[in-house]
Amino acid sequence: MYTVLDTSMRDGAQHNKISFSVEDKLGIAKALDLLDIDFIEYGAPGFDSEAELFEARSNIAPEKLVAFGMTARVNTPPEKDEGILKLISSKGSYVSLVGKSDRRHVEKVLRTNAEDYLKNIRDSVAIITKCGKKVIFDAEHFFDGYLFDPIYAMASLRSASEGGALILALCDTNGGSLPHSVRTAVTECRKAFRQTIGIHAHNDSGLATANTLAALEAGAEHVQGTLLGFGERTGNAALSTVLPLMKRLGLKEMPGLKLLTPVSRTVAEISNISIPDSAPYIGSAAFTHKAGLHADAVLKERDSFEFIPPESVGNIRRLVLSKQAGRHLVKSKLQGVLPEANEPEILSAIFAALKSREAEGYTYEAAEASFYIMAARLAGRKVDFFETVDYTVIDTSDALSHAKAEISVGGVTASAKAEGNGPVHALDTAMRECMLKFFPAIDSIGLVDYKVRVIDPKSATGAKVRVSITTTDGKRTWKTIGVSRNVVHASFMALEDSYRFALNDDFNGLFA
């Protein structure tokens, strides 16, 4: 039976920019429990106060919880070692015990006799198993140790085996092993031991996933990693990649895999990191098609450019609008929203406008709400429910900026003044005050993100900029865009589109 251990809360916490509170760990454990992960390693009770509090408050089943610790300190009997005693009294059914398998580390780092240390491994494992715990032995630096002194590396596993360990996890601690070396070592371990062989790969060579697969191909049946791959230095094998691969290889049935993307995003949010757009399976670009030929092919035959359905890992397909998009993609985007796009003349006008505006610096792949507004306007739909008569922004050395705005609705005008934390905030506040006199629904929307990008940096402070604004009404979230050499004007254009989208009933079904 193949098993998986997630060590995001222990090994992952060794990342230089990550620090977990007890609440963080409880949130991560709750998220991981939704996936088909067998073991959740939560920390070292002997040295990690958060781990002890986590034990007291966690509702995760004991057979899933894994406490982490080390073999007894040199010259300390295991039955008197504080760390070992903490592991014995831990809440979970399993203990992950790390011991060194590289003779050089034993002699030069621990500064102890290599043969004495083998007895330490055996006795440390034995006392934990005799007290009713199940031990996963993490053979630290195993692959480097195997290359240097294979007899001693195998002897470390034998000691753990004799002590009663159920799983022997081979660790590529430095992350420098190559797949063929991993495959060779795992094959030999499979021949020598009846215990389950596991793999714990680090990613210093960018090969953590490849080395994990090599180990599985050679007979390993236990995998360790962190869900998003973060960890010390360059991180660990990312289970968000490894789990779908195990399912594809028929090694493990995982009904919970359909929650992989939302669970990954939850863990990323708690960890205060961003998932790269290009992350396999879970990244926002993993099932995104921009090239016109690709998008057209996917519309006709899904698996022409997708090897698995995005929903199988909780992700979605995105067809990106750009100058590379073909008419079929543009038409597909507007189906159900703008039936007029079926008319060749209107479709051609929209397609031409898309290319023209991209030449000016617009990019609609990250601002589709502005695209829908542009397309609806070209189709003759009413999208301009208000007209901006004038606006003024004053930014002085004072802490606050000042803005004045005036709009017209059906020939009736309204104006307002406002202060804000910067010119865009002040302008947004003034515009809202104007529109609330005509459109009460505007009160329910709010800006959640604001980004500025310089399009032609060689022009220095006179460069053209692209402003992207993200807005939500609590049910939908949409993005709009503005381009200008004046950053305030570009921001205003994006703000106007944001209001237009919110007021247009034709767009109610979008981005829900």
3D architecture notes:
With 512 residues, the protein is α/β, with parallel strands linked by helices. The protein has 3 domains: 3-271, TIM Barrel, CATH 3.20.20.70; 341-385 and 439-512, 2-Layer Sandwich (Double Stranded RNA Binding Domain), CATH 3.30.160.340; 389-430, no CATH class. 38% of the residues lie in helices and 20% in strands. It has 17 helices and 16 strands. It has helices spanning 22-32, 49-57, 82-88, 103-108, 114-130, 142-148, 150-163, 179-192, 208-217, 239-248, 260-271, 292-300, 327-334, 344-359, 368-378, 423-436, 487-503, and strands at residues 3-6, 39-43, 65-70, 94-100, 134-140, 167-172, 196-201, 222-225, 288-289, 318-319, 387-394, 401-409, 412-420, 446-454, 465-472, 477-484. An 8-stranded parallel β-barrel has the order 1-2-3-4-5-6-7-8, surrounded by 8 helices. A hairpin with a 6-residue loop joins strand 11 (387-394) and strand 12. The longest helix has 17 residues, at 114-130. The protein starts with a strand and ends in a 9-residue tail after the last helix. 45% of the residues are buried. The model has no long low-confidence stretch (mean pLDDT 89).
